[in-house]
Design goal:
three-stranded antiparallel sheet; homodimer; DNA-binding
DNA sequence: TATCTCAGTTTTGTATACAAAAGTTAAAGG
DNA sequence: CCTTTAACTTTTGTATACAAAACTGAGATA
């Protein structure tokens, strides 16, 4: 399976690596809200200079994960720990727009490509292979983001997805959930291939919303 | 050269100023899609070093406005010129979520604050003062973004809003449009103050959507 | 006691130097 | 004539040095 828009494999510059490390550390709570990300200290820890560190921090700042007070320092944002529910609200909204755009722009070749992905997902779901199914699940969503043909939308979705670091996968591996998700993905595909923007947006929104509430309810 | 003077502002750092300058230049089309943002060349033009320039570029990269190929350069993204329609789709989706969150979190003091803003907008609308009305319009939307109490959402909305640089204001100064917008804002306020998340989200979405199509239809 | 001042410390902001990768061109070899 | 290769050029990536703003705290003063 080749990923059409894989940007990360070859570009492993220091600034990218440290960006990912810092982001993960913030999201998993290793750096707690309010924590001072001391430039020199971090540079020493990572054994790098401040230049790539600064570049990574500007990206985190742009995402709202850290707040920088000039000449004082960068601090982990107080409301990084927005609930999974809120993050997924935004995700469902933006991915919904992606589906809408994809429905208006998709061509026949791309419909085949999307269908191929769906078929593969169906196969893995019937084989009860949760790992592969979830992998195809992620790719299906990513493909829609690509088919929106709007780099801004794509970037936003990737940024939001990187917040997912929890034990989500175990929950979603529930067989009934996999079947439900498959049916919803089939609906999404149908709407996009029919070039129905409203239908596509709604299908994605309700899918993400339902799947999120499922996770929340299962957790407790 | 012509940019150098503006950097004298002491309150903001060079990296922030140059970020805004570059962003505006990209949005208004001064730097066209595919244009190579040469680090050293730009640094010379702005009469600054490459460090703050790099930091600004990482923010633009994070936003998807430029694409950086390692050791090659940063280039204005090919699809920066997404139509005003697409930008506003995303905006309506994210501001819709902001309204939803605001409806679930708002307290009585904040309802008064929002009402105050609305009343001021009513006054200016009745006085037929388009400039002030639009100013309050912007503030009303911003206040909702703040009341969502989610820094991520706030940041996204601010980032999207910065794309607005067109002759939008003239179109929106149409008296009928101002009246229509006022009624819609009243509905939005009502929904949020009633703590109705669905109603609030729908009200914002349809308001932004209608107002956008009005602009598009008026333009031609 | 409370507040103001000012020097000392901390921390980031910016500039510059150098290293390394990618791109380019032209000559050599088939 | 086309392809390969290797030197050369261009451009970014990273490290380091220094400047400047913000914070801190002790001592003076009202």
């Amino acid at each position: 399976m080749e990923f059409a828009m894989d940007i990360s494999s070859k570009t492993r510059s220091v600034r990218d690596v440290v960006y990912e490390k810092l982001k993960e550390a913030i999201i998993v709570g290793e750096y707690k809200p309010g924590f001072h990300l001391n430039e020199r200290q971090l540079a020493e820890q990572f054994m790098i200079s401040t230049t790539p560190l600064k570049e990574a921090m500007r990206r985190l700042e742009q995402e709202g994960l850290i707040i920088t007070r000039p000449r004082v320092g960068s601090f982990v944002s107080d409301d990084v720990m927005v609930s999974i529910e809120e993050i997924n609200l935004i995700r469902s909204a933006v991915e919904g727009i992606a589906a809408r755009l994809a429905a208006t722009k998709i061509n026949d070749d791309e419909i085949s490509q999307l269908e191929e992905t769906l078929k593969e997902m169906e196969r893995y779901t019937k084989e009860r292979n949760p790992e592969k199914t979830l992998e195809m699940n992620a790719y299906f969503h990513k493909l829609i983001a690509i088919l929106a043909k709007n780099n801004y939308v794509y970037k936003q979705i990737e940024a939001i997805r990187s917040f997912d670091l929890g034990p989500k996968n175990k929950i979603l591996s529930n067989p009934e959930e996999l079947d439900r998700a498959l049916r919803e993905h089939q609906l999404i595909f149908k709407m996009i291939s029919m070039r129905d923007p409203d239908g596509a947006e709604n299908a994605v929104r309700s899918h993400i919303h339902r799947s999120t509430t499922f996770i929340l309810n299962t957790k407790k």
